[in-house]
Amino acid sequence: MSDEIIPTGPEQAKEPTVTSAPPTGRKFPCAQCGAKLDFNPTAGALKCPFCGHVEQIVEDESADVEERDYHSQMERMRERAEVTLPDTFTQLRCTGCGAVVVLEAKHVTDQCPYCGTHLENLPDSERELIAPQSLLPFKLTDREAYKAFEVWIERLWFAPTELKKIATLGQLNGIYVPHWTYDSMTYSRYTGQRGDDYWVTESYTDSQGKRQTRQVRQTRWSYASGEVQHFFDDVLICASQGLPDYLIVKLPPWDLDALTPFQTAFLANFKTERYTVDLEGGFERAQKIMETEIVRLICQDIGGDHQRITEKHVRYLGITFKHLLLPIWLAHYRYRDKGFQILVNARTGKVAGDRPWSWFKILRLALLIALAIGLILFFVNRSKNPEPSRPDAGQSRWGEAAAARIVGEQRRRPRMAATPWSTRISPTASTCC
């Protein structure tokens, strides 16, 4: 086995991508009746729940969605810079699940949208709060979210047959869930080994004592090193601890290109959660996602059939972040006195949720698979070991009938009468004509 050093060069660095969003404006009281306007997902505007008046949000050309420097923000937070919420909103910490819910100040009591715990409007501390910079407005109404739930129920595999008939969906809660996005330029220097496969012919003795040859695969390892430069754009991290991760990861894709600069007008008639995963904790999660991709890129850069990474050093430069809110419809449904949670992406209608399983259907499928495998093995074994051929039943019966006919004919054939001794002709006697 020979070693060969293969030089590798770094990849070309990717230019950072900065996301912008359409302009937006302010919220005003209803011009027709003076009541408070609610944001309507269908109209994409403020709609009065009393008189039905629709008011478009006034455009603001100066509004923009920008990336913010990660290290500068962390320095300000270390100095305990304080950012407060608008006077019309307060934040409450749920004693049940720990979520921090933002409510309008006029609401004295409410329920936690995640666990249903009663919330009393006693404001929590707002120190070190990073205000949201942008959001994706609700696009689906609650009725459209309910239809998405019904379609999801219909398509569930191995679900109880009666589930779609008796599953009762509770009240849908529209929630803006906090997220972080991180951008970073990464420089990853590595050393490792590249493995290239090749084939050799070797001889061996089989079970019958005969010499045979066969092809055997072997791997030639060589030294490898280099640098991979890669730009990560909008690595999305959920900043809520009130929702299970295994459901949140099923909701993308999100159309982040349509992010809108944050304003409280879009929060009307919806609940909002404050982040419980802070900026630093979110970046630690983002690094784990980046790490997986970096390892894949290094292996791709090494090449060959196999790769070994002996050592790597990653530098994260130009780190920026955004704090944004994503819209989700959340509800619980009941089946046989047991509760299940579902989430609906309020932009695309994609549903992720807990569900019951029909163990009878799963067991039935397993038995059918086992039966099919058994039949395949039976016929394969029979084809390898065929039984000696035998005449079929029709041929056997035909042969027996033919034999019986022959015996019968022999019995019916007349016998020759015996010649009396007195009339027998002596062989020496002569005859005359």
Description:
It is a single chain. With 433 residues, this protein is α+β, with helices and mostly antiparallel strands. The protein contains seven helices and 17 strands. The protein has helices spanning 70-78, 142-154, 163-166, 245-248, 279-302, 359-384, 393-412, and strands spanning 38-40, 45-47, 54-55, 68-69, 89-93, 100-104, 109-111, 118-120, 134-135, 168-169, 173-205, 211-238, 260-261, 271-274, 306-335, 338-345, 351-353. Strands 4, 5, 6, 9, 10, 11, 12, 13, 14, 15, 16 and 17 form a twelve-stranded mixed β-sheet that branches. It has a three-stranded antiparallel β-sheet with strand order 1-2-3, with no helix packed on it. The protein has a two-stranded antiparallel sheet with strand order 7-8. 26% of the residues are buried.
Strand content: 25-35%
The helix content, as a percent range, equals: 10-25%
By oligomeric state, this entry counts as: single chain
Mean pLDDT: 75
Spans of at least 5 consecutive residues with low confidence: 1-28, 105-109, 418-433
| SSE class | alpha+beta
Major sheet: size, sense and barrel closure? Answer: 12 strands, mixed
Quickly list its features.
single chain; 433 residues; alpha+beta; twelve-stranded mixed sheet; three-stranded antiparallel sheet; flat; disordered N terminus
Question: SSE layout and pairings?
Answer:
Layout: E1 38-40, E2 45-47, E3 54-55, E4 68-69, H1 70-78, E5 89-93, E6 100-104, E7 109-111, E8 118-120, E9 134-135, H2 142-154, H3 163-166, E10 168-169, E11 173-205, E12 211-238, H4 245-248, E13 260-261, E14 271-274, H5 279-302, E15 306-335, E16 338-345, E17 351-353, H6 359-384, H7 393-412
Parallel strand pairs: 9-15, 11-14
Antiparallel strand pairs: 1-2, 2-3, 4-15, 5-6, 6-14, 7-8, 9-13, 10-15, 11-12, 11-15, 15-16, 16-17
